[in-house]
Amino acid sequence: xxxxxxxxxxxxxxxxxxxxxxxxxxxxxxxxxxxxxxxxxxxxxxxxxxxxxxxxxxxxxxxxxxxxxxxxxxxxxxxxxxxxxxxxxxxxxxxxxxxxxxxxxxxxxxxxxxxxxxxxxxxxxxxxxxxxxxxxxxxxxxxxxxxxxxxxxxxxx
Length: 157
Known about the structure:
Blueprint: H1 13-27, E1 33-39, E2 42-48, H2 50-56, H3 58-65, E3 76-80, H4 84-96, H5 106-115, H6 119-155
Parallel strand pairs: 1-3
Antiparallel strand pairs: 1-2
Helix pairs in contact: 2-3, 4-5, 5-6
Main location: nucleus
Subcellular location: Nucleus
Organism: Cinclus mexicanus
């Protein structure tokens, strides 16, 4: 008698994996690369995991896959013109699939997503910017309608 295959799928495993990788990064465990960022003289270093960076960023994937065996594995990457807070937020996003930033930083997050070729972050920023724009347009429409109704009430005899 032949048994039918069944699918064993965990809904919590991806979230658990991300949470565990984030904890390992925050504790500095098993990190195999340090990313140094500098912007206008402010510099910081971030320990990370090559596999996580390569899986979430085509930029890092290209950097790590193009390492020359003669040089040995790359243990550090330098990013110029990247603000420390923005890269910290980028790392939080790629390790947790979420990050909280001020509204005025969304455009900068989109720019770092494009620079580092992180499609998930780009799409997330685009969606948020779209929602923000729709909200502003709705507010303008409501304001315009309230102005029109005020004008109509003052013009009426």
